[in-house]
Amino acid sequence: MEQFYTIQGEGFNTGRAAYFIRLGGCDVGCHWCDVKESWDAEAHPRQSIDELVAAVLEHPGRNVVITGGEPLMHDLTALTAALQAAGCQTWLETSGAHPLSGSWDWVCVSPKKFKAPLPAVLAAVHELKVVVFNESDFAWAEAHAAQVPAHTRLYLQPEWSRAARVTPAIIDYVKQNPRWQVSLQTHKYLDIP
Ligand code: SF4
Asked: Is 9 annotated as a binding residue?
């Protein structure tokens, strides 16, 4: 759908330069989705893996975020193998709602209420990033945290349009439950993609 070189704005890798490849196609159906134009995979041009890798290598950074849409609707085996062979780190941003494919240096799952993450994806996650709309989401976050490996980094992130209202509750929750961390969409504050 689109690709661009920017700074990872949220979660564990916040602040690091990264090349984003946003793949078309998503069937999760979040009503608040801010990339609804990604949903129809056929609405976007196809590119070869060689073209994608060449575009990445035009920039000095070697961290590549594969996002969507829902990237796991595609078999990502060949793309991630080619990126790693070219010396890149492969970072996945997924809802976890489709089977895991590909070879990953970092897997971030952001669960969605409309289509639950698969247990097999949660078992492979390095970072669980839960977007918070209201206080009832903390229990939902804990239910997912109970399904991930012990080493998984746990993040609570205010939904952008609700940030002014829910951020104080997130701060209080993290102070009381310090295995969680706060994640902010710093790219939105910085006004970068
Ligand atoms: S999973 Fe992501 S791309 Fe798909 S509908 Fe939800 S927010 Fe949008």
From this structure: yes
Q: pTM (2 decimals)? A: 0.97
- Kindly tell me the burial class for residue 110, based on how many C-beta atoms sit within 10 Å of its own C-beta (0-12, 13-18, 19 or more): buried
Nearest atom in ligand 1 to 115's CA: 1
186 is in an annotated binding site: no
* Measured CA distances, 45 to 32, 57, 77 (Å): 25, 20, 20
Whether residue 10 has its Cβ less than 6 Å from ligand 1: no
Which domains occur in the chain, in start order? 2-189 (3.20.20.70)
154 lines ligand 1 (CB under 6 A): no
Residue 92's DSSP bridge partners are 66, 107
Write the residue with the smallest CA distance to atom 6 of ligand 1: 30
Tens of pLDDT, residues 127-176:
999 999 999 999 999 999 999 999 999 999 999 999 999 999 999 999 99
pLDDT in tens, 46-72: 999 999 999 999 999 999 999 999 999
